[in-house]
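Please fill in the sequence for the structure shown.

STRUCTURE ENCODING:
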């Protein structure tokens, strides 16, 4: 990573994965073309689980090229706009808007980048567990019905796991608060 001052500790990068609402999986499709696809996922103990249909561009690509990367972002904020008064004062003192470049023409963020290999989840108990965790993450208000939904979806839902080889995280915090 070029900007070592923005590098996160591994545990912090894993927490980004836990909090991120979605991620983008980057892979090669069946023909070897670059392909990125957003997906729902859940992280547990160094493994990311995601689900999908039994066929399609993503599935064909994963079967042929299991080495992937995944990027997740759990926070992104843009600083408030420069007020006319701030602009005029800065121009008067500095002669340009250069002092704004680092704190107004930027973004705050936390992101994690994962590299690893994917594999089809064949064990029915692991598949159930992964689907349950995905449901708990995305539809917690349906908790009383998750077990039945998982059982119903088992026959037509494929589950994949991405075993994390490496994870890195990057952050920029300007102290912006919502």
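FILLED IN BY: designer on duty
SEQUENCE:
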């Amino acid at each position: 990573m070029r900007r070592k001052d923005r590098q996160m500790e591994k545990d912090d990068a894993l927490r980004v994965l836990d909090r991120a609402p979605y991620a983008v999986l980057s892979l090669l499709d069946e023909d070897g073309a670059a392909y990125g696809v957003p997906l729902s996922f859940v992280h547990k103990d160094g493994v990311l689980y995601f689900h999908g249909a039994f066929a399609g561009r993503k599935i064909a690509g994963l079967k042929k090229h299991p080495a992937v990367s995944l990027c997740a972002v759990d926070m992104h904020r843009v600083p408030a706009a420069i007020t006319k008064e701030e602009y005029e004062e800065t121009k008067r003192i500095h002669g340009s808007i250069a002092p704004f470049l680092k704190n107004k023409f930027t973004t705050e963020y936390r992101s994690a980048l994962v590299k690893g290999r994917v594999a089809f989840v064949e064990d029915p108990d692991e598949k159930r567990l992964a689907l349950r965790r995905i449901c708990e993450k995305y539809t917690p208000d349906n908790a009383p019905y998750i077990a039945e939904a998982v059982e119903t979806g088992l026959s037509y839902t494929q589950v994949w796991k991405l075993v994390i080889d490496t994870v890195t995280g990057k952050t920029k915090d300007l102290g912006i608060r919502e």
